[in-house]
Amino acid sequence: MTGRTRKGNWRYWFAAQRGALVAMVIFAVMFGVYGAAQSIGLTSDIVNTAANKGALLALVAMAQTLPVLTGGLDLSVGMIFMLANCLASTIVVGSPAMTALGIVGVLAAGLVCGLVNGLIVVYGRLQPLIATLATSAIYFGVALALRPQPGGDINGDFADLMTRSTFGVPSSLLLIIAAIVFVWLPYRNSMLGRAAYAVGSSEQAAYMSGVPIARVKLSAYTLAGFFAALGGLLLTCITFSGEARAALGGDYTLNSIAALVIGGTSLFGGSGGVVGSVFGAFVMRTVGDLLVVFNINPVLQPLFVGVVLLFAVSLGSLRLLRVRNKLDLFR
Predict the structure, then answer these.
(1) Between vectors from CA 22 to CA 17 and to CA 28, what angle results, nearest 5°?
(2) How many CB atoms lie within 10 A of CB 105?
(3) In sequence order, what E strands does 153-297 have?
(4) I need a labelling partner for 326 at 20 to 30 A (CA). Which of 46, 97, 260, 296 fits?
(5) Mind listing the UniProt keywords for this protein, alphabetically (predicted)?
(6) Taking the model in full, what pTM does it have?
């Protein structure tokens, strides 16, 4: 391999990962400010708490990223997240064997919810926005049936394993890393993963090239359900309870969209990835932590978060406008 080829490969890699790298730098700066503002510094408890909060949104953002890569949008990820929370607080209890079966049941429920979304989008030929808006109401209804009132429990040993530190590293971060290494990367490097980018870039061109569009979309929405359910399982480990609250699911859905845009994923599909979405999620969570540290009036906190959300979503539109302006040169 020549020096010019290696240079070209590095340039391509940096261009592809630019959004994720920018989100990483923004998070590092913001978290550094957050740590400096702490009177006792960044203790292990503070880092662990921040990691747990960030990991919840990170998993939902990972779920949102997959449909967006194909040119879609999943408005039900927050409700699948909440449904998994309510289900986990019901069945992830008892002996280690029963707990393991409960975990499998929660993740399987997420896969089924995602598959249902994919089937409706692909074979029902509905717009993803409309289809997932409808299914989100269904998933909320199921969650409410499971948990009419907040409550429930979860196996204490499993919850401790998921929320404490392992060799000084928050277990929630290890969960994120495991999800990336064992789920995202194999998917990203598979035929379906590569095809997802092609479908998001141009579905018509992908179809003409023989890409199995139905399988691509089904796999994307199904894996989205898995990641959202994993987040709901982690929430149960943190809170030791389940709660069906529409506002909670809605907040996670909206913030997941902002997180993936901050992480460099285009809302129009075809570019990005879950790694950037993870850092985007931690940026979103650190914004809230900074507002608390600097004693911003709680009444004004939604205003600041809303501004960040608007700015994040606008980034995607600016990228599209930039591309369109370049295309004007060829008219």
Answers:
(1) 125
(2) 17
(3) 165-166, 169-170
(4) 260
(5) Cell inner membrane, Cell membrane, Membrane, Transmembrane, Transmembrane helix, Transport
(6) 0.91
* DSSP secondary structure letters along 85-133: HHHHHHHS-SSHHHHHHHHHHHHHHHHHHHHHHHHHHHHS---HHHHHH
Residues in the chain: 331
**Other CB atoms within 10 A of residue 299 CB:** 7
Under 8 Å between Cβ of 23 and 264 = yes
What distances in angstroms separate CA 106 from CA 66, 191, 221, 251, 278, one per listed residue?
20, 27, 16, 21, 22
pLDDT digits (tens, 9 = 90+) for 53-107: 999 999 999 999 999 999 999 999 999 999 999 999 999 999 999 999 999 999 9
Query: In which band, very low, low, confident or very high, does the pLDDT at 37 lie, cut at 50, 70 and 90?
Result: confident
**CA pair distance 242, 147, nearest whole angstrom:** 7
Q: Are 241 and 153 in contact (CB under 8 A)?
A: yes
